[in-house]
Amino acid sequence: MHVRELAVPGSYEFTPELFPDRRGVFVSPMQGPLFQSHVGHEFQVAQSNISRSSRGVLRGIHFTTAPPGQAKYVHCAHGRALDFVVDIRVGSPTFGAWDCVELDAESFRAVYLPVGVGHTFLALEDDTMMSYLMSTSYVPELEQAIDPFDPTLALPWPEGLDFVVSDRDRAAMSLQEALERGLLPAYEDCVDGRVPA
Asked: What's the whole-model pTM score?
């Protein structure tokens, strides 16, 4: 497994070893002891989700109100996607910074997003399936969204695609609006990617 810290501190890219044979391929995108040795804490799974998207579907930027916040471990089980981590932690030295990783079902690369980091992805192929492990269960009233087209963030979405975006994401607030409304997590509360109890 190759591990690389991303431009948003506390977020990581994990590229697992593939084991191909005449039957196909075997891969382990999440390996607990290796994760802990690089990130510094265990990843406790409270819920797992799978989304299937057509080409051009854009989901996010999503985050969970902190506390409790929510960490995610995401990989692409089928298809291909551009996956973004966005630092929305107020007081972070990299507030507003982002990084992008291409996830696909060839490399089975995965991304870890600590608590306090926003997440968005764009499906580049039909039937793109994204698998998420989450540190907390889904609580609708804690889920927040930031405009993925916010010019302040200037995420480099590819040109020439007809984006398919939910009504909720299309109406999402800007980063500045979320900041002014006090909805963003505080950097000092997000210790090692976890909000203290």
From this structure: 0.93
